[in-house]
Amino acid sequence: MRKIICITTYPPRECGIATFAQDLIRAILSKFGESYSIKICAVESDTEKQTCTEDVEYVLDTSDISAYATLTRQLNENSEVKMVLVQHEFGLYAAQEEAFLQMLQQLLKPVILVFHTVLAQPSPALYRSVGRMMATCANLVVMTQNSREILLRDYQADGDKITVIPHGTHLVSFRDKSKLKDFYQLSGRRVLSTFGLLSPGKSIETTLDALPAIVKTNPSVIFLIIGKTHPGVLKVEGEKYRNLLEAKIKELHLEEHVLFINQYLELPVLLEYLQLTDVYLFTSSDPNQAVSGTFVYALSCGCPIIATPIPHALELLSDDSGIIFDFKNSEQLSEAANHLLADEKLRTQMKLVGLQKTAATAWENVAIAYASLFQKMGRVEEELIYSLPPIDTYHIRRMSRQWGIIQFSKGNRPDSSTGYTLDDTARALMAMCQVVATGQGKVKERYVKTYLNFIRYCQQPDGSFLNYVDKDGIFTSQNEEVGLDDSNGRAVCALGYFISCAGHFPAPWKEEAEAILKRTFQRFDRIESPRSIAFMLKGFYYYSRECPSAQTDACIWLLANKLAQIYRRTAEVHWRWFEAYLTYDNAILPEAMLLAHLAIGREEYKEIARESFEFLLKKVFVGNRIQVVSNQGWMHKGKSSHGFGEQPVDVAGMVIALKTFYQVFKDEKYLRMQKDAFNWFLGNNHLHQIVYNPATGGCYDGLEENNINLNQGAESTVCYLMARLSLLSD
Questions:
Q1: Nearest-CA neighbor of 208 among 333, 373, 32?
Q2: How many angstroms separate the CA atoms of 295 and 300, rounded?
Q3: Structure pTM?
Q4: How far is CA 684 from CA 34, 479, 630, in A?
Q5: Any idea where the Glycosyl transferase family domain is (predicted)?
Q6: Class of 2-164 per CATH?
Q7: CA-to-CA distance for 462 and 728, rounded, in angstroms?
Q8: Residues 42/21, Cβ–Cβ less than 8 Å
Q9: CB 44 within 8 A of CB 50
Q10: Which burial class, exposed, middle or buried, applies to 651 when counting CB atoms under 10 A from its CB (0-12, 13-18, 19+)?
Q11: 179-215: b (≥16 Cβ within 10 Å) or e
Q12: Residues contacting residue 138 through CB under 8 Å, at least 6 positions apart
């Protein structure tokens, strides 16, 4: 474990950089706590003393020239400290700037400097000062491309030393806006809001001057000014600025349309206020403000935004994802606000674009970027160890209804209009059975019974199953248009698994599952789909463990021989596979053959399993990263696959299969590859972004070339859970 010291302001001090540092460090430790230990060197001054917490190991009094040399010596002498991360804002170190620069020069550990502000067109003195910082640091982090361009253009910086890592945002489990308005006594109001530590630079008066024109068109408008007065402002001039604002509110007769929330809100409450906001207003009057944490927090909560043209806003609100207005131009602001409030479709569009843009900036993804930089800057290359998230069934339970589990979602909100499928419900049955059987996560048995009932409902008189059911429980025409073999196979698989762990449930449930399963026997000779055969094999393997019989063995023989024949017909020297192409959920095929071997002991099945699995591994693993077959054209024999369009179902299937192969062959490489494959969900993928959402317990629907599909449907979420559960020891 590598120890890093972060020099920064830190809570309980109230300032933007303190909050940033806390969020960043929590995110890194949450994701890579086995790789890095991060402690704080808290920045204080003679007027702002630091209250130390357990995170704080050192304190730097920036007004004391000797404190810099003392800290330098302490860090250099501490062999445990491998790197120093400095959060930089010019005002923090202005009292003893030369001492600060000398500290950077004399530190013997690699230093990464995070520039929170980058000033264009520097004076000669500023140019020299920044130049010394850049010369002594191993790497510079900036939060926007604009800041990088300023460093390159105006400071002649070395581009190889600059890393752009955006300001982080919080993942949000979205709640109903009307219910939030009810809770905060804002029912029936059109809500405009802004937040942050109050200071004249926020230019709140710009909004107040715009409000009369907004209220005239939208009489229900209320403007929320969220946040305490900045402690630095409070010490110098008290509540002068807030008093000026209150006087202007009275002057303009806006008392019924403005509400001060004079608190430093806890994060969950702040995020709720932002979610109930109809339009967020960012009115900073500082053209040199490089980034704004308040701005990106609002964007990540789905707020349509009207903002002044600071570089960060210009960068993020391009492509009509927001509205830009001129500094202090109240007329433009009122026009923009009225335009947005009148156009719900436009607000929705901005919300979706904003959420897509900020997905990559979730603190979890920012943590991945910083960890990769630490790895690069470290003098000894060490593999990153991803922390496993706790098992969470919340989103699956939220997606479940009386019939089964809803097929799709919009974001993390279930879309009941899409109905249900046997595919998803069968997977959910297996996942929830395993949760109950292992005592992991929070789940009620009733969900298991709901899923079992759905499978019974889908079974037809001839033993087969229909797959598609609408929101009212009616079978849809899709059942006549789409092949159903694979969904039938998954149903058998789920039933077999349920029976294998039925001891955790009431006895009649097991009897019901057996009756459903036995009605499928008459259809074995009609099944031709390799995956359907494989799922059925897996189901009967589980069933045979609980209910061994000659009849069950005969079913396994029949199915395994079918799959073996398919393999022998297709496999060649350079293509050891069951088909002339690789499509989806490929790992189930060799896994099923291996389970057939375990069930009846035939060595041929074991050989086919290992041979085909090794072939598959070579196709989807590159180093320590998995890249499963794209759903945009698949991978045909003799042709290369499209590089993007990866789905959680494929990764999960590989994670599960790797466990099975390790249990049989005891080859440690399978365990290593299983961890690598699972880490795809945690950010070890070509986008270096999380696919599992820890805020909701859901899993995003896919990994595209340049973005994540942010919907969190049943298939992806349940598959993730099954993969996570497979990492548990038996």
A1: 333
A2: 9
A3: 0.92
A4: 16, 37, 17
A5: 188-351
A6: alpha beta
A7: 38
A8: no
A9: yes
A10: buried
A11: ebbeebebeebbbbbbbbbbbebbbbbbbbbbbebbb
A12: 110, 111, 112, 161, 377
273-to-7, 187, 277, 490 alpha-carbon distances in Å: 31, 13, 6, 43
pLDDT in tens, 137-193: 999 999 999 999 999 999 999 999 999 999 999 998 888 899 999 999 999 999 999
Provide the token pair at 609.
């399993």
Residue 504 token pair:
């955790």
Q: Which residues contact 622 (CB under 8 A, 6 or more apart)?
A: none
Structure tokens at 491: 């149903």
Residue with tokens 């087969």: 464
From CA 298, how far away is CA 287, in angstroms rounded? 20
Q: Is it true that domain 177-361 has CATH number 3.40.50.2000? A: yes
Two structure tokens written together for 98: 């030369």
Q: What is the CA radius of gyration of the chain?
A: 29
CB atoms within 10 A of CB 439: 7
| Cα separation, 671 vs 163, whole angstroms | 34
Q: Which two structure tokens, joined as six digits, stand for 464?
A: 């087969």
CA distance 221 to 216: 9
- Name the nearest CA neighbour of 412 among 499, 301, 508, 313: 301
Whether 2-164 shares its CATH topology with 177-361 is answered yes
Residues in contact with 199: Cβ distance below 8 Å, sequence separation at least 6, in sequence order = 229, 230, 232, 233, 241
Domain ranges in the chain are 2-164, 177-361, 532-618, 623-649+658-730
Amino acid at 618: K
Strands 305-307 and 581-582: unpaired
pLDDT in tens, 65-89: 999 999 999 999 999 999 999 999 9
Q: In the numeric block, which tokens belong to residue 206? A: 């710009």
